TrEMBL record:
Cited SMART domains: 7TM_GPCR_Srsx
CDD domains: 7tmA_TAAR2_3_4 (cd15312)
Transmembrane segments: 33-56, 68-88, 108-131, 151-176, 196-218, 258-278, 298-316
Gene3D superfamilies to which the protein is assigned, alphabetical: Rhodopsin 7-helix transmembrane proteins
This protein's UniProt keywords: Cell membrane, Disulfide bond, G-protein coupled receptor, Glycoprotein, Membrane, Receptor, Transducer, Transmembrane, Transmembrane helix
Organism: Athene cunicularia (Burrowing owl)
Membrane-topology annotation of the record: Multi-pass membrane protein
The G-protein coupled receptors family 1 profile domain, residue ranges: 48-309
Record Pfam families: 7tm_1
Family: Belongs to the G-protein coupled receptor 1 family.
This protein's name: Trace amine associated receptor 2
InterPro entries named in the record: GPCR_Rhodpsn, GPCR_Rhodpsn_7TM, TAAR, TAAR_fam
Molecular function GO terms recorded: trace-amine receptor activity
Amino acid sequence: MLSPNISRDLTDCSEFGNRSCPESFRSAAVQGIMYLFITAAFTLTILGNLAIIVSISYFKRLHSPTNFLILSMAVTDFLMGFAIMPYSMMRSVENCWYFGMTFCKVHYSFDLMLCLASIFHLCSIAVDRFYAICHPLHYATTMTVTVIKQIIAVCWSVPTAFAFAVVFSEAYASGIEDYEMLVKCSNLCPIVFNKLWGAVLFIVGLFAPACVMIGIYVKIFTVSQRHTCELSQVHRHSKSDKKDELSKNKDRKAAKTLSIVMLGFLICWFPCFFTILIDPFLNFSTPLPLFDALNWLGYLNSLCNPLIYGFFYPWFRKTFKYILKGKIFSPYFRMIKLLSED
């Protein structure tokens, strides 16, 4: 979600020429290094999230409400790496947009949509974990497969409608001085947010969902801590008690892992969202290289999620090995036991 510096006075197209780009300030060596590292980043993003998609889709043992939400979120990260990052790479390295203004809007709409879809999924996962840990007796009847499908549909449809409506209506640019001249003169794909829509995007897309998630996870960890204290006071457990304790420990571990995923999202995307919020009040004076760097910090979140899953989830490490060995081509592996507690 890039926002260029447009504070300069544009009274004609002499600065940019006729639909031309500013001269690149990077040497060929620097551009080559940038292409190398960014290509590696989005390649790993694609492969890592594809592994999650294949794992949860293929193995029957992983077909659970939480994992379906993780699967859907992995699709957003996969699309970010496959459909967004390569074009953004060319824009960042070449300091130019070669694909026309119509595709610029399409690209920016999908960029914004996938970012918002990710945080909607994180909110949904937080709600799912809340019911699993805080209301375990009602979880099976509340978070059914049908409900999960409806939640996933909302996680995709609402960000899609918001992103495409805002970008193609150009409401985000209303009142921004010299915006039309910049679009007419340059090939920079200069999509920015005015004060109103910058604030709306920050509140609706980040601040409000973050507050909801933080509140839910605080409640989850409070309840988990209370359960731990209660279990520690019991010296003798029946077999069913031990199974219940194992299930609760598994839920707490899942909540802890997903809270780290949420924290990673906030660390990666908050600087970009915050800059979009304050930049209109600073007369769009934020340097373009800084905006570009913050944008790529947000993109890297799509790479971080598979790494987090691989570090904390034994099932992902095991299924990843099966994928690399090609064992998933055998139909018998669909029902294989992945964890000792299965």
